[in-house]
Design brief:
single chain; 434 residues; Rossmann fold; 2 domains; nine-stranded mixed β-sheet; four-stranded antiparallel β-sheet; 21 strands; binds adenosine-5'-diphosphate; binds zinc ion
Length: 434
């Protein structure tokens, strides 16, 4: 079993990476300045010329690009190649507003296949794998991203897309799927459905899962590993940069390796835009140095994490980012306290009698913000004659209070009463935003 898809790229020395990034950055900036009027104007306004960028150390001189820029330039304004060179279009899921489109050249699709092949190889995949892509196919990047990765690796792609869960499971069983790709919340749903269908997970060939496209905590990752009896890889990406495969986790559980020979990461202070040192939490920013169709310059992802450039025990030298804490848009401010759904998830999954299904309802009573945490009891706890609801509620209340520094309202709900997700789960309802 190969350990790396592309050891030269994944394990090069920091010096080599620095010179490769620098070389690619300088030529990409020049190209983009010449071919994209939108960038040229922004750079002119900021007083930066392509000649000012002499190495990756000069990256901070360039202006940022934001979701707003993409919306203003919609649909083709940030494309760097003529439409005759564009062979595929994708769009964001629109989780946080008007959708954004991205265009890919043939070479961009090859890069996408390459970075997803690295990801699937990190999950233990090779040409013998059967890779089931249960992310949605279509404009969403999930389905085809996993698909191209499987084909680049020479594996068999099983393009089931999302939905029709029982049929998915039968195919997974009959075709001998070895790697499942979907969102973590759908993986949870699939695992639960396998159980409900009365099937034994050990009769499947499943070895690994490549899950991502939404935030999930380490606790959730372990929960899914137990449920499906597999190892898992956290795959990160966004349409604007390429889709899934921007970064992937290894078997060391020590962060997510960024494919930084293609996408150069930075962490910035979201307020000031200042670049932050390794280990400091901030907003993740990417610069594409190989993409042709829509190469983003210093794109602000709004995702919150930190990065490190230390080598990893897995042998990869690619920079690592921590699991995404959440998007800055997901942060709830409750009575002045900042709360990310991931903090609630971590705390809840530490409690034995609750299932990994929850919903957060934010509201306002008078002038006071409230956070109600709805969480399912496990089947076992629910059927227990002597269940002690109050005691469990108190346990959750205390646990959340110490994790968030905030008093919440706990509502225990029956098993299966919180709706399941086949794609990106919606776990927060903010009634204040009505
Ligand atoms: P949208 O922004 O409309 O959801 P995308 O489908 O392009 O569009 O989603 C990209 C976003 O999904 C990322 O910016 C990030 O917030 C989230 N995301 C993707 N992969 C992960 C992951 N592994 N962990 C946490 N969040 C992720
Ligand atoms: Zn590693």
């Amino acid at each position: 079993m190969a350990k790396y898809w592309n050891p030269e790229a994944e394990c090069m020395s920091r010096e080599q990476m620095h010179s490769l990034q620098s070389e690619r950055l300088c030529s990409k900036i020049k190209e983009v300045y010449d071919s994209v009027p939108y960038y040229r104007e922004k750079m002119d306004q900021a007083g930066v010329k392509p000649e000012d960028i002499r190495s990756v150390d000069d990256l901070h001189l360039l202006p940022f690009t934001s979701k707003q820029d993409l919306r203003e330039a919609y649909p083709y304004g940030l494309f760097a190649r003529p439409n005759k060179d564009i062979v595929e279009i994708h769009a964001t899921s629109g989780t946080t507003g008007k959708q954004i489109v991205a265009g890919y050249t043939k070479n961009d699709l090859a890069i996408w296949g390459e970075v997803m092949a690295r990801t699937l190889t990190a999950a233990g995949g090779d040409e013998n794998s059967v890779v089931q892509s249960s992310y949605g196919y279509g404009l969403f990047t999930g389905g085809l991203g996993a698909h191209y990765g499987a084909q680049t690796m020479g594996a068999m792609a099983l393009p089931t897309s999302s939905g029709n869960t029982e049929r998915q499971i039968r195919l997974m069983h009959d075709m001998g799927t070895t790697i499942l790709c979907c969102t973590p919340s759908y993986a949870l749903y699939i695992g639960e459905t396998i159980r409900d269908m009365g099937l034994d997970i050990n009769e499947f060939q499943l070895e690994a899962g490549v899950f991502g496209a939404e935030p999930w905590t380490v606790e959730m990752q372990h929960e899914i590993e137990r449920l499906l009896n597999i190892r898992t890889v956290d795959v990160y990406g966004l349409t604007e940069i390429i889709g899934p495969g921007v970064a992937f986790s290894c078997d060391q559980e020590c962060g997510i390796h960024i494919n930084e020979d293609h996408f150069i990461p930075e962490i910035i202070d979201p307020e000031t835009g200042e670049v932050l040192p390794d280990g400091t939490l901030g907003e993740l920013v990417f610069t594409c140095v190989t993409k042709e169709g829509m190469p983003m310059m210093r794109y602000r992802t709004r995702d919150i994490t930190s990065i490190t450039h230390e080598a990893c025990a897995c042998g990869r030298t690619l920079a690592r980012m921590k699991k995404i804490q959440g998007r800055s848009d997901d942060m709830m401010i409750i009575r002045g306290v900042n709360v990310f759904p991931s903090q609630v998830e971590s705390a809840l999954l530490d409690i034995t009698d609750v299932a990994p299904h929850y919903m957060l309802i934010v509201d306002r009573e008078g002038t006071r913000d409230t956070l109600e945490v709805q969480v399912e009891m496990t089947e076992q706890f629910f059927s227990d004659e002597v269940k002690q609801l109050e005691k469990l509620e108190k346990e959750i209340f205390e646990k959340l209070k110490s994790a968030l520094g905030l008093a919440t309202k706990i509502k225990l709900v029956e098993p299966k009463s919180i709706s399941r997700s086949e794609g990106k789960a919606v776990r927060v309802i903010d009634k204040r935003k009505k």
